[in-house]
Design a protein that fits this description.
The complex is a heterodimer. Chain A contains 5 helices and 3 strands. Chain A is α+β, with helices and mostly antiparallel strands. In chain A, strands 1-2-3 form a 3-stranded antiparallel beta sheet. Chain B is built from 12 helices and 13 strands. In chain B, helix 2 packs parallel to helix 7, helix 3 runs parallel beside helix 4 and helix 7 crosses helix 11. The two termini of chain B are 43 Å apart. The chains are: A alpha+beta, B alpha/beta. The structure holds pyridoxal-5'-phosphate and FE2/S2 (inorganic) cluster.
Chain lengths: 143, 404
């Protein structure tokens, strides 16, 4: 399967690869996927407590090129957004932006899950209840 | 160096220019139907087929009459399993095969199960080897066929065909072997090795796609298979259909070249394979899959722990063509069943890459591959959360993942 230009770009020049200090109170960490499924994503956000804005985001991903590109794109999108805005992230926007084929939709789902898990981790750390996350759209029969 | 470098010769091989040269006249002026008995067009085609039949037979020390041309190994394997099952129904309905066989053997076996066959699927150990006493114990009075591949297409492990045939012989059971990956790469002697049926395919040995054969022994014992297609009774009644003359000519030429060059070629390729393998095993946390004692000379299968195979391949697949056991590359979204049969965890199967070398690879290409793959592993590990955890000494078994 050939990759789209945008997937290749994110794969070759991934934005925001790295690690934030997960012990900091204003850092939220989301770890989703599983090694036996062939994909694990860890996405972290650093939030400005005053403005509730995401001032930094980092990811590390074990997975295919589409998974790496999806997480790279997700970090790029959420930096500068408020936590509430970031919570609106929809995996289908990633699918569209990266022109992912149907078999790679679950890679985008993982990125959405990772963002939401990171936000909820941040919320729980700061004494807020986690926001229920509905199952994102996925066409992966294996999910 | 010419790019991309092709290191996926177990999937298919390029046609050798000498093979193509031999084929061309049979598309043009020598286009006759090998069954046409009334004119020179037919005679010329028939002669070419006869000659190719000898070339193919010589590669495996068979008699030319024992070669049944088919469309490839998928058809040969189907014909062997289904044809034996139908032909020997009065003797029994039990077939023994192995979990790491190619899909076409396993699916043919599944098909026969629906027709009332009983199939034993032998397991393999962590190196991909079968246990011979387990094989012998599996034989029943109703066993008609043992089908064990000569060499595995993913890990290159060669099964001990002589020992297996001795067991088959003792119990009066037929032995079929899928030699698609072994033929033309390692010497095969169907007589000395006691093989009754053998499948091969031209496109894995520098011949064209869409042609192969089933060797069916004619003496001691005389083996027969029931045709799986009805028609004009070509190929001694076992495989009807107008012969693919240019393809068969190419297959013959490919076999002859392999007969002649196999020995030096195996030495050259095992040198290059070993060089590649040793260099890549220098990287931290890389594991070799399958036995290294009995295996094909041109193939290695490695798991690059903590990086996912498709993600890794993407770093160099513009320049280097290989394949992966990762689920992300397969339509089924399941990692390689062969690697899983060796007991590899899913995560290691996901991290595997098969490098299969061939006639047209050079040392320069191997050196380049070593460099690119080593860099890519490093780069991907820097992006891998699992690598980070591993490096921090975190036991991944204690991490709560969320399988989706
Ligand atoms: C071991 C084995 N058997 C059978 C086949 C099928 O061969 P063909 O492509 O000629 O149908 C292959 C090729 O993929 C193979 O590797
Ligand atoms: S991570 Fe497996 S297909 Fe993307």
């Amino acid at each position: 399967m050939a990759y789209s230009k945008k997937v290749l770009d994110h794969y070759e020049n991934p934005r925001n690869v790295g690690t934030l200090d997960k012990n900091k109170i204003n850092v939220g960490t989301g770890l989703v996927g599983a090694p036996e499924c062939g994909d694990v994503m860890r996405l972290q956000i650093e939030v400005d407590p005053e403005t509730q804005r995401i001032i930094d985001a980092k990811f590390k991903t074990f997975g295919c090129g589409s998974a790496i590109a999806s997480s790279s794109l997700a970090t790029e999108w959420i930096i500068g957004k408020t936590v509430d805005e970031a919570m609106q992230l929809n995996n289908m926007d990633i699918v569209e932006e990266l022109a992912l084929p149907p078999v790679k939709i679950h890679c985008s789902v993982l990125a959405e899950d990772a963002v939401k898990a990171a936000i909820n981790d941040y919320r729980v750390k700061n004494g807020l209840p986690p926001i229920a996350v509905e199952e994102p759209a996925s066409q992966n029969v294996n999910n | 160096m010419k790019f991309p470098i092709y290191l996926d010769n177990s999937a298919t091989t390029p046609v050798d220019p000498r093979v193509l040269e031999a084929m061309l006249p049979y598309f043009k002026e020598k286009f006759g139907n090998a069954s046409s008995r009334s004119h020179s067009f037919g005679w010329i085609a028939e002669e070419a087929v006869d000659y190719a039949r000898e070339q193919v037979a010589r590669l495996i020390q068979a008699d030319p009459k024992e070669i049944i041309f088919t469309s490839g190994a998928t058809e040969s394997n189907n014909l062997a399993l289904k044809g034996v099952f139908e032909m020997y129904q009065s003797k029994g309905n039990h077939i023994i095969t192995v979990v790491t066989e190619h899909k076409c053997v396993l699916e043919a076996a599944r098909h026969l199960e629906r027709q009332g066959a009983e199939i034993t699927y032998l397991p393999v150990n962590s190196k991909g080897e079968i246990d011979l006493s387990q094989l012998e114990d599996a034989i029943r009075p109703t066993t008609v066929l043992i089908s064990v591949m000569y060499a595995n297409n993913e890990i290159g492990v060669i099964h001990p065909i002589r020992e297996i045939s001795a067991i088959a012989e003792r119990h009066g059971v037929l032995l079929h072997t899928d030699a698609t990956q072994a033929a033309g790469k390692v010497p095969i002697d169907v007589k000395k090795e006691g093989i009754h049926l053998l499948s091969m395919s031209a496109h894995k040995m520098y011949g064209p796609k869409g042609v192969g054969c089933l060797y069916v022994r004619r003496r001691n014992p005389r083996v027969k298979v029931t045709a799986q297609m009805d028609g004009g009774g070509h190929e001694r009644g076992m495989r009807s259909g107008t012969l693919n003359v240019p393809g068969i000519v190419g297959f013959g030429a490919a076999c002859e070249i392999c007969s002649r060059e196999m020995k030096q070629e195996a030495e050259r390729l095992s040198y290059l394979r070993n060089k590649l393998e040793i260099a890549l095993l220098q990287i931290e946390e890389v594991a070799l899959n399958g036995s290294t004692e009995n295996r094909l000379p041109h193939l290695t299968n490695l798991s690059f722990k903590w990086v996912e195979g498709e993600g890794l391949m993407m770093a160099f697949n513009k320049d280097i063509a290989v394949s992966s056991g990762s689920a992300c590359t397969s339509a089924s979204l399941e990692p390689s069943y062969v690697l899983k049969a060796l007991g590899l965890g899913d995560e290691l199967a996901h991290s595997s890459i098969r490098f299969s070398l061939g006639r047209f690879n050079t040392e320069e290409e191997i050196d380049y591959t070593i460099e690119r793959v080593t860099d890519a592993v490093q780069r991907l590990r820097e992006m891998s959360p699992l690598w980070e955890m591993y490096k921090e000494g975190i036991d991944l078994k204690t991490v709560e993942f969320r399988p989706h």
